[in-house]
Amino acid sequence: MKLSIYNRIFALGAVAVLLMTSTTSCNDEWTEEQYEQYAGFKAPLDTEGNSVGVTTVYVPFTRRDADGKALYGAEGLSSYKLPVIISGSTVNSRDRNVHVAHSDTLDILNQSRFANRHELWYKDMSDYAKYPSTLLLEKGNSTGLLPIELDFRGIDLSDRYVLPLTVVDAPEDGCIRNPRKHYATAMLRILPYTDYSGVFQAANVKFYLVSGGITDDEPGAMTTVQTYVVDENTVFFYAGTFNESSQLRKDYKIYARFEPFEEGGTRGQVTFYTDNERMNFVQNKKATFTIIEQPDEVQTYIVRRTLIINDIDYTFDDYSTAMGSVITYLIQGNMTMERKLNTQMPVEDQIVFD
Q1: Distances (CA, A) of 69 to 43, 90, 261
Q2: CB 92 within 8 A of CB 142
Q3: Per-residue pLDDT tens for 227-259?
Q4: 3 state DSSP class of 304
Q5: What is the C-alpha to C-alpha distance for residues 256 and 230, in angstroms, rounded to an integer?
Q6: Which residues of 194-204 are buried (b: 16+ CB within 10 A; e: fewer)?
Q7: Helices (H), the chain
Q8: Which of 86, 210, 213, 214 could form a disulfide with 328 if both were Cys (CB 3.0 to 4.6 A apart)?
Q9: How many angstroms separate the CA atoms of 230 and 296, rounded?
Q10: Residue 343's CB: how many other CB atoms inside 10 A?
Q11: What is the pLDDT of residues 164-204, one digit of tens each?
């Protein structure tokens, strides 16, 4: 039986009202919080490189003001601001004091990542860092920055340091810890940098075996060399093909002292040395460095800063071979490190080494 025209009009009107009600209901849902407003950090974990499973952060070895003076009164004093976030689908609904404390999960991380290879275990960096126990996030503000003061004086970066932090539940202050572990905990591997530290491309560096004063004619090739900060003008790296994952890396540290020909100059000499006499280390001739800065041909706001070390030439003994014999290596060549600096940003906000 066909509907009368009046019945059809009534049915269509009812459908329209239902659709309007449904649409209004959906829109109203977004005016209310859909999720719990949890407190956590923004510290994404590294997925490649030397620090998989922690968060690598690069900060200047010395924080300086606009005039180039040490901001905190001495070289080796720096800082980092760790982002703190209140999660949810709406903005922070009240004043919240986010409580921050030392995390006790570092040993768990070390055991799960490295098992019995204790030489690779991360060390707690808490002795070199200070931070407030609470951070106020006012109503309407869902993000904040936790100030961390850093003292790199006397630190030995052949030890792999991590600063483990966690959010602590404090419902009375509006702080509810994010239940997702990678948000509630930050495992910060904080590495200082200077003009001379970072990852160098070393394809032009060759290593030769030396036996009885005779150098092998078939050298081995190298790829990259990472340098670590000692002070503003000194870095260290690992001899030959030793690297951060080597069991005996601490015994094969080589220091490089950069000595500009004039203060603030872009050219100078590099003196290599070691504090391990058993290496019988010899720098065969003086190395030199040059810093070249030039604008990118396409992105004119980008400056390419290239550090070149020429005339690398040294020998050392590897005395830790499985058979107990001593192998002498000759290392020769040059290597370069390039940074792409965005002139529209502060330098410390854009340094990436790997």
Answers
A1: 30, 42, 21
A2: yes
A3: 999 999 999 999 988 999 998 999 999 999 999
A4: strand
A5: 9
A6: bbbbbbbebee
A7: 5-29, 106-114, 181-184
A8: 210
A9: 31
A10: 10
A11: 999 999 999 999 999 987 899 999 999 999 999 999 999 99
